[in-house]
Amino acid sequence: KRVAILISGGGSNMIALARSMEGAHPARPVLVLSNDPSAKGLERAAAMGIPVAAVDHRPFKGDRAAFEAALVQQLDAAAPDVICLAGFMRILTAGFTGRYAGRMLNIHPSLLPKYPGLHTHQRALDAGDAEAGCTVHEVTSVLDDGPILGQARVPVLPGDDAGSLAARVLVQEHALYPAVLARYVTGDRRPVLL
Ligand code: GRF
């Protein structure tokens, strides 16, 4: 199976996914694509020998469809079977999510359906939650929604701030996403619960 990974920044989740595919694995990364040409993850992917590309979203200003058409051009050239959004920070239109329906995943740093959107860790702290975590889900036209394919939970500890909680969750993201992908590419849709 051919896997394309979309990133916007450091790409730590992309690295975890790529490393998980290095051994005997039914999938391999065929493209790492970013909306930011300066994304550190692009250099890190290239250093692992993975083809990289960038489509800077800024010249497109508000024209999401035109930006997405440029993404589609890069993606279709790589002909992925599965697309993994990994720290990808642009909202995608229904046209794009519809094109890849049933074969696009995302990781979100909360226990969905709680806290879709941004600032998830601060919101969990503000709510006094005892637990936090991350979710891998199939991407639909509704932001941070879609069938849940995996979740990992962490305790919220006394003295936690958004940064310390994010760091604890990120460790679980790096375990969860590869576990979900390994199962997903076999056609198994049972959720991974860590
Ligand atoms: C992570 O918290 C991820 O859940 C969110 O973006 C953050 C950075 O991801 N979507 P990465 O290090 O770029 O993979």
UniProtKB/TrEMBL annotation:
Transmembrane segments: none annotated. Its EC number is 2.1.2.2. The active site is at H108. GO terms for molecular function: phosphoribosylglycinamide formyltransferase activity. GO terms for biological process: 'de novo' IMP biosynthetic process. N(1)-(5-phospho-beta-D-ribosyl)glycinamide binds at G11, S12, N13. Keywords: Purine biosynthesis, Transferase. InterPro entries: Formyl_transf_N, Formyl_transf_N_sf, GART. One of its GO terms (cellular component) is cytosol. Residues 1-181 form the Formyl transferase N-terminal domain. NCBIfam families: PurN (TIGR00639). HAMAP family: PurN. Catalyzes the transfer of a formyl group from 10-formyltetrahydrofolate to 5-phospho-ribosyl-glycinamide (GAR), producing 5-phospho-ribosyl-N-formylglycinamide (FGAR) and tetrahydrofolate. This is Phosphoribosylglycinamide formyltransferase. The gene is purN.
